[in-house]
Amino acid sequence: MQQLPHSSLSNLPSAWLNALSSQLINEESILAWLEIDLDHQLHFATGIVIATDKRVLAKMADDGTWQTWTYQQGLQLTQRDHAGVGCLELFDPQARLAFWRYRLSNVMAANRLIECFSQQLDYHVSGKLPESSQTSAQCPHCGAFLSAEQDECPVCEKQNHIPPSTWVLLRLWRFAKPYKGRLLIGFLLTLCSTAATLVPPYLTMPLMDNILIPYQNGKPIDTDLVQFYLSGLLGAAILAWMLGWARTYMLALVSERIGADLRTTTYEHLLNLSQEYFGGKRTGDLMARIGAETDRINLFISLHLLDFATDVIMICMTAIILVSINPWLALVTLLPLPIIAWLIHLVRDRLRIGFEKVDRIWAEVNNVLADTIPGIRVVKAFAQEKREAARFHAANQRNLQINDRVNRIWSLFTPTVTLLTEVGLLVVWVFGIWQISQDEITVGVLTAFLAYIGRFYIRLDSMSRIVSITQKAAAGTKRIFDILDHVSSVPESANPVHLPTIQGQIELRHVGFRYGTRSITRDINLVIQPGEMIGLVGHSGSGKSTLVNLICRFYDVTEGAILVDGHDIRTLPLAEYRKHIGLVLQEPFLFFGTIAENIAYGKPDATRAEIVAAARAAHAHEFILRLPHGYDSLVGERGQALSGGERQRISIARALLINPRILILDEATSSVDTTTEKDIQKALDNLVRGRTTIAIAHRLSTLREANRLIVLDRGKIVEIGNHAELMAREGFYHRLYLAQARNVDEEERALISAAEHSIAGEHK
Amino acid sequence: MSATVTYQLTRNSYGRLVLTDQSGVMHEGVIPVRSFPITDPGQGIALINSHGHELAWIERFDDLPETYRVLVESELAGREFMPEIKRITEVSGFITPSTWHIETDRGPAVLILKGEEDIRRLTASSLMITDSHGIHFLLRDRTALDRHSRKLLDHFL
């Protein structure tokens, strides 16, 4: 650690650097520091604790002087945390010398500080130089082990919190890109069809000036000319119809595909997110996002965006035509446009927030349903139907409330645009009549203007609608991209190490895991040899399942590292790594499908012979044959009802089929009775043979086979050894075992007495 | 009612609470824990030993002798960290993750909101906001906030 430091001095917050430089005595170098962000009463305040090669220094911003402690025998620096606040304490043998509190964002710095402190203390007390630091590189920020290929730390990387840009809709371009060509054709078609629709009003001008007005003035009607103009009108209409059909069809086709891509991409991404993500989300909300939101975006692209584009093109073209006919009248006609644009802008923000709220409340309504329907048995058993109905009613009520508020603004919006339209028309009339009276324009020009402007303002009206629809789509897009932007908290390594086969050696190095602010496991060190069977023992909540989840990489360790055959599991490709692991859970989950499909879930290309062999080894073959359709029987939701033990044996067969080197049994036999357990145990014995096995079991008797038992208590390893050794030690395991044995005895006694009672009852 | 307390409570030189029970057994590192930290902080405080087992139950603070009450309260003050938001001065954006500059009863602070789902509704007017490091910020009454804060907050609800 001593070789590191001078460069790190420059990383020290500049505010402290000046204050500190006067403090340092000859050639003292700073090794580590911790920024303190809370005071003793847990108010926000700043301070710093520094470990140098001579002593420990500390100062809070308000303190006048630095506190210092030189390294000496018996000094001790420890940290603990509770509810997101860490506490660093400095002890000597007699008392606590000082303590500091900080938010857990600094926990890595605290650990580094303690590490440096204890190394220096060792050096000052015993004169021994600290061992050179580990061979594997460590992240400078968080201390996680990095493999040779990794430059950036995967742990730090995921903690970036950069908000996405506001122009979320533009991000949909990622999905539109593959359809560039077709989109371009669609755009050209839109241009042409819009141009075609602008021909008829233009023709009203000569119709008026060259035919109708001269006729009123006594000239006969020129039928040829009338025919020419009218056929022009018809031709333009038919052309517009055809082009309109082509572009609508083309763009709908594309948008449908974009929508489908969006849906599948989102779902794929969702599946790759860690379990942590699913733990924090509600099913109803996620389902609504993938289903309803993608549909809304889809509709937006195919219908509203298309309309809007047409409108913009039409307005531009119309403006050009109007200016070319008469610039002054055009100016007056176009005057309300900026006002309307300003109005649209004004309402935009309010509406967007409103619509986002509507969406969120809608997800809440869904959540109530998603909560209640799966738990319907509990609802009915406790007769809480009324309460659930009230909950749904309340959610709906809030939905109404928020919708009402949004509608209040929204309902004012459209009539205002209509009013402006009318006022605009009025202005054109007034100015037009005045210009005619001045002989500046003909009646035909005014008619053409009025015809154009009619369309023009109608389009503006519908354009104003795009505001809300765009906002809704943007809100939906944002919610979709919320999922897409969520980086899995178990990120795939950038330069993965491929291990086609593994030995099955697992090493846990200083493993710590924190869920939220709760520290669940701390500093676990363990090496499991290939082929060894390990039993994890401890009270519930002692961290057994967490450890298993960490080994499976459902979560990533917050501190330390897990190595398989010497490789950090964070450097292995996830899917490849998990292929080496067979997992049998307490509650086996069967998908809807045949038994054969369920057994072959981890290896879909398995042959029938393999499936049968796996089922035989799992002692599932016979009961499967007893089912009406054998291996083709449907199971899972809406399928054949299987007992817990039967389902468990299918899941054991599933694990057997992928032939994993590492096997994890998470309370595999807890949910079944003792007789079934024996069946399952036989199946498990086949499974365990020759594999590295980690078993969690509540019933200690099922772990007799284990080579070693690891006894966990509150996130720490307290004892290691086999059954006999641990019993002889009379420690934690011994107590646990006795407590359980007593329970079993009591259960049996209770059973016997109950049986006696019932027999006695019968005799009476 | 001031119930008689059957144990002794002291603080040792290591800064730990020590509870000596009736049979004279000393428990070092006793931790007070509130049962309802949000809904009813004053009711039901348990004294827990370092193994997580309950040693004593305090129904109400008033049940404790004055000296013990001060001890327990000071220990709680050093353990509980739920800053109460008094004002939201600035938010970086209405799209999460968003950085909020806030004023709390424990001084000004910055929190990073990862997603709207980290805002938990406690009652109609009170909220609990969890930041990216898992620290809980309490908003006791959002109707009592000033107009600016309410407006900013409203974007996220």
Automatic annotation (TrEMBL), chain A:
Parts of the chain that traverse the membrane: 183-205, 225-246, 297-322, 328-347, 409-435, 441-458
Keyword line: ATP-binding, Cell membrane, Membrane, Nucleotide-binding, Transmembrane, Transmembrane helix, Transport
Subcellular location: Cell membrane
Listed GO MF terms: ABC-type oligopeptide transporter activity; ATP binding; ATP hydrolysis activity
Record SMART domains: AAA (SM00382)
Lipid bilayer topology: Multi-pass membrane protein
Sequence ranges assigned to domain ABC transmembrane type-1 in this UniProt record: 184-472
Name of protein: ATP-binding cassette, subfamily B
TrEMBL record, chain B:
Protein name: DUF1854 domain-containing protein
Species: Nitrosomonas oligotropha
InterPro entries: DUF1854 (IPR015005)
Domain DUF1854: residue ranges: 27-156
